[in-house]
Amino acid sequence: MRLYTYWRSTTSLRIRAALNLKGIAYEPVPVDLLKGAQNTDAFGEINPTHGVPVLELDDGTRLMQSHAIAEYLDTISPEPRLFPADPLERARVQAAALTIAMEIHPVNNLRILGYLKGRLGHSQDEAVTWMQHWMAEGFAAFQRMIAPDTPFCFGDAPTYADLCLVGQMVNARRWGLDLSPFARLAAIDAHAQTLPEIAAAMPENQPDAT
Fold first, then answer.
1. CATH code assigned at 134
2. Beta strands in 40-151 (DSSP E)
3. Does residue 17 form part of some domain?
């Protein structure tokens, strides 16, 4: 397998961690988002939405969108599970993961910030305030959705919700979000990073990190 990725991409982090946890070997293919490599026609043939991650299977099939990729990996390699087998527990994990993947991350990603600062003329400080606002709102909801007293979001092992959280916590720290209201999330994030598979997926440990 090949994974089109970028060291600071938190959606790519989710899939790097998922692959590591499942023991699935992959070749990272760095795509430099800051230099606009994702906007080329050539990369548009790989992913029409011009984003990462993209997982390329051994037969050349390409899968896009981190949530869809994670579900595919859970299907072909069920252990350890990222999504519980029990329908009710699965729905809870999905809802929490999607709170980050759909409610927080999309309004904080590179192209949205580029539009805010470029087309709409907002300053860097205004863009950071925007990011902090949506992260705080989303984290407050996420914190109420997860279990109150388990090592990970929903138990003793990480689920896809934890991988989404770890990625978004990277952004929270990068952009100076006040994490004092989110002690539960900070504790889960710190515990998750004690797992070698998740630690290896962190941005600073990628071959293209700068």
1. 1.20.1050.10
2. 54-56, 62-64
3. yes
Q: What is the CATH number of the domain that holds 54?
A: 3.40.30.10
* Tally of domains within the chain: 2
* Beta-bridge mates of residue 29: 4
Cα separation, 127 vs 90, in Å, equals 35
Write the pLDDT tens digit of every residue in 83-119. Answer: 999 999 999 999 999 999 999 988 887 777 888 888 8
Residue 42 lies in a domain: yes
Q: Is the pTM of this model over 0.90?
A: yes
Range of the domain at 115: 87-197
Q: Would you say 121 and 186 are in contact if contact means Cβ atoms under 8 Å apart?
A: no
